Amino acid sequence: MANIGFIGLGNMGGPMAQNLVKAGHNVSVFDLMPAAVQQLVEAGAEASESAEQAASGKDFVITMLPAGKHVESLYLSESFISNLSESTRIIDCSTIDAETAKKVAAGLSDKGFSFIDAPVSGGVAGAAAGTLTFIVGGSAENFEAASPILSNMGKNVFHAGDVGAGQVAKICNNMLLSILMAGTSEALQMGIDNGLDPKVLSDIMLQSSGRNWTLELYNPCPGVLDNVPSSNNYQGGFMVDLMLKDLGLAMDTAQTSKSATPMGALAQNLYRLHAQNGKGSNDFSSIFEMFSATKS
Ligand code: NAD
Questions:
Q1: What range does the domain containing 76 cover?
Q2: Which is the most buried residue in 133, 196, 213, 279, by most CB within 10 A?
Q3: Separation of 89 CA from ligand 1 center, angstroms?
């Protein structure tokens, strides 16, 4: 059983913190939204009045915040650092750019604290079910120390490399996912335009070389699969706006490393247009509508 401070109790952080409580840890929580804190108190956590209070004297501090600027302003603030115990280990699960993760790690390391980036894959449903995949960047020792805690919130914990590597691996995955979703949508719509049944076409491609995760488990064409966002008016799942955020991070990373990412850039533009069409809060599989809308 560990003493854990958890900061950022939104769609992801709330259920993640609940799973730590269920696993028997002492969890002190803080969020700018009092209602989010209250929900965790009802689940058995202890309320804190500030991030400093949540982190004070803890074995682990975990953050699940919206973006890099929130992570940086918290961890590089003198008042926050001065409240940490010498042995406190810091785990940031937010999806942010690798450069900010490295900057925060360096700032904390100067004061003697360890840091890992541990972004997640699996979405809100995975956070609630405790089946997230954690993709960790940091030293082997820090990875080993954090793994048992992360395992209470997820079923896969990967060590991608040094600090920042977790973020890079996560956005490589999400860039590929966006490309696969757009490509799958395009192929399905072309089949429909030429008289094919999208379910039959999906079955054929699933046994052929076009097989991929979006086609098999998250089919973007309404009616092909039950229990996926496309069969629920694209509600639930992973929002277009969040995919756009990750594609922005991917493009920044490509710029820094001078990597050629033409497919990622195209996917970013498609998703941006889609968001500008008012689809930002729909599931990302709704990119299918970019192709189908011209036919209706
Ligand atoms: P969210 O907006 O629902 O939650 C963020 C929470 O952080 C909010 O409750 C907000 O009040 C709180 N917060 C912001 N600044 C704070 C501060 N200084 N101190 C304390 N609390 C603060 O976001 P989310 O969906 O939970 O996502 C969190 C992170 O996880 C993001 O980086 C996102 O990209 C990533 N992520 C989200 C999903 C998803 O499906 N939602 C999936 C994978 C990764």
A1: 3-162
A2: 279
A3: 20
Expressed in angstroms and rounded, the spacing between residue 7 Cα and the centre of ligand 1 is 10
* Catalytic annotation, residues: 170
Claim to verify: residue 121 and residue 20 sit in the same structural domain:
yes
Render pLDDT for 89-102 as a digit per residue (tens, 0 to 9): 999 999 999 999 99
- pLDDT recorded at residue 293: 81
DSSP-derived pairing of the beta strands 120-121 and 132-137: antiparallel
Q: Retrieve residue 56's tokens.
A: 């004070």
* Residue 214 and residue 275 in one domain: yes
Give the end of a domain, one of 110, 129, 162. Answer: 162
Within 10 angstroms of residue 207's Cβ, the number of other Cβ atoms is: 8
Instruction: Tell me the C-alpha distance between 25 and 159, whole Å.
Output: 23
- What CATH code is carried by the domain that includes residue 95? 3.40.50.720
CA of 84 to the centre of ligand 1 (A): 22
Q: State if pTM tops 0.90.
A: yes
| Model pLDDT, residue 236 | 87
* 127 Cβ closer than 6 Å to some ligand 1 atom: no
Q: Which of 169, 146, 17 is nearest to 91 (CA)?
A: 146
Q: What tokens does 183 get?
A: 């490509």
Within this chain, do residues 151 and 253 fall inside the same structural domain, yes or no? no
Q: Looking at the structure, do residues 216 and 254 belong to the same domain, yes or no?
A: yes
- Report how many domains make up the chain: 2
- The closest-lying atom of ligand 1 relative to the alpha carbon of residue 30 is 20
pLDDT of residue 103: 97
Give pLDDT, residue 92: 98
CA distance 133 to 151: 9
Q: Are residues 130 and 254 in the same domain?
A: no
- Residue keyed to tokens 């409580």: 21
Domain check: are 157 and 185 in the same one? no
